[in-house]
Amino acid sequence: MLKKRSVTIRGHATSYSIEDEFQDALREISRERGRPVAAIIAGIDARRPPGTNLSSAIRIFVLKEASQNAAQP
Q: What global pTM score does this model have?
């Protein structure tokens, strides 16, 4: 289910809407890296191309991470 979520990054509150499965994967990436979810999202936000919304950038990030992990032996 698509849910709107809030996060504070670099001192300002913002929101994003992603499905529970993407949020779960984002939490797992956060746990594996030993970094807060907000820090992961801040990095995604800093690198997203102009015109790409944050929710889409998060989904793409999670998909790329899953793809890279699947390719590793």
A: 0.92
pLDDT band at 62 (very low <50, low <70, confident <90, very high): very high
Distances (CA, A) of 23 to 3, 46, 50, 72: 9, 19, 23, 22
CA distance 62 to 25: 7
CB atoms within 10 A of CB 37: 15
Instruction: Work out how many domains the chain is built from and give that number.
Output: 1
Query: Which range of residues forms the domain containing residue 30?
Result: 2-71
Give the pLDDT confidence of 14-33 residue by residue, as tens digits.
999 999 999 999 999 999 99
Distances (CA, A) of 12 to 7, 15, 42, 52: 8, 10, 11, 19
| Nearest CA-CA partner of 43 in 24, 21, 65 | 65
